[in-house]
Amino acid sequence: MLQSVEFKGIILFSKDYKEKDRLVKIFTEHAGKMMFFARNVQRKNNPLKQAIINFHYGTYMGKLQKDSLSFLNGVKTVDAFLQIQTDIFLNAFATYILSLVDAALEDNEYDPSLYGFTKQSLQLIDQGYDAQVITNIFELQILSRFGVQLNLYSCAICGRVQEKFAFSSYMSGIVCTKHRLQDKTLYKASPQIIHFARMFSNIHLNQIRSINISDETKQELRVFIDALYDEYVGIKLKSKKFLDQMKDWT
Ligand SMILES: [Zn+2]
Fold first, then answer.
1. Among 80, 97, 126, which residue terminates a domain?
2. Model pTM?
């Protein structure tokens, strides 16, 4: 018989199932993304009721099954991203990050480094760091999980690293002034945008304290990363559409 085990996880989403139960998708640290059945969780005194709401994370207990639905039985410790829960803007960024995780990973795909990266990204947004910068870093670094490898480091043709680069769709990477002449697939991106995209692709989140970017540059980065996603990833997420619409409110 399957044993109940303890595991760390971040709630991706949950939805009602019949009257008293819920289906919960959790990004677990040691077994990847999994769908859980939580029985009787709608009852008032069930401690799981609060622990499976969006933007909660913690140590849960359950029976993990690879080929079928897993069972969520209890919770040991739980925490919430409180600012994200209460601020609609932060909420939109965090929801988009979680839907990217959901889109990039197959179920049961073991990826503890993405787990840590996701958790830290949400923690920083929750602590008041620039949500757009963190989201852009997340978008660029999760590209590899979609099977996309871009060379933002050196000219795709001659390998030069100190130059004014442009991004070439044909080369899936940057090209220097000398080698961009024949290329009709260049993105409109200033050298500054290439600089930030390159930095964001490699930066560790512990270093983001020192990043300061103007609104104009942020807007250009948004356009550049959108172009990359349209071309290389090709997914349409509702959460991204919402995030784009949100800009018009301010
Ligand atoms: Zn070159």
1. 80
2. 0.93
